[in-house]
Every structure is written in structure tokens, then in C-alpha cells.
Amino acid sequence: MPSAQTMKLRSQNYQGNVHKQGKVPKSLIKKEENLPVGPILLGVFLFVVVGSALFQILNVASSGQEI
Asked: Which BP terms in the Gene Ontology apply to this protein (predicted)?
């Protein structure tokens, strides 16, 4: 367990920060710039979706069937 002096210091720091809640400068707030999907994976996904749609359109057009 931490010593009494450490606990007292941590408690004082906490008490000092309690009343500053919401007043954090913008420079201290971490920005998340991580994309959930990488650009390569997104490109492959779009290639597959658009390619399969074009392939289906060409198949329907060449066979003479209605959609």
C-alpha cells in the first residue's frame, strides 16, 4: 500500500482538480484521428462492390432480361 504521505498528496491533487472539471484547455485534450477502416481496405471494398454492380449490369444487359 502507498504510504500515508503519498495518499495525502494524491488526495490534495484530486481535491484541487475536482472543481476544474470541464475547464481543460483544448491543447490538453487528446484528439483521436484513427480511422476505423484503413484506406487500402476501403479501396478494396469499393472495388469489389462497384465492380460486382457493373458486372451484374453488363450481364443483365447482354442477356436481354429486364431488371
From this structure: endoplasmic reticulum unfolded protein response
* Lookup result for grid cell 490534495: 12
Phi then psi for residue 17, to 5 deg, are: -90, -15
* pTM, two decimal places: 0.45
Using CA atoms, how far residue 20 sits from 9, 25, 28, in Å, is: 18, 11, 13
CA distance 39 to 45: 10
DSSP-based helix, strand, coil % in the chain, nearest 5: 65, 0, 35
pLDDT along the chain (67 residues), means of 10: 82 74 67 81 96 93 75
C-alpha pair distances (Å), 38 with each of 4, 31, 42, 47: 49, 18, 6, 14
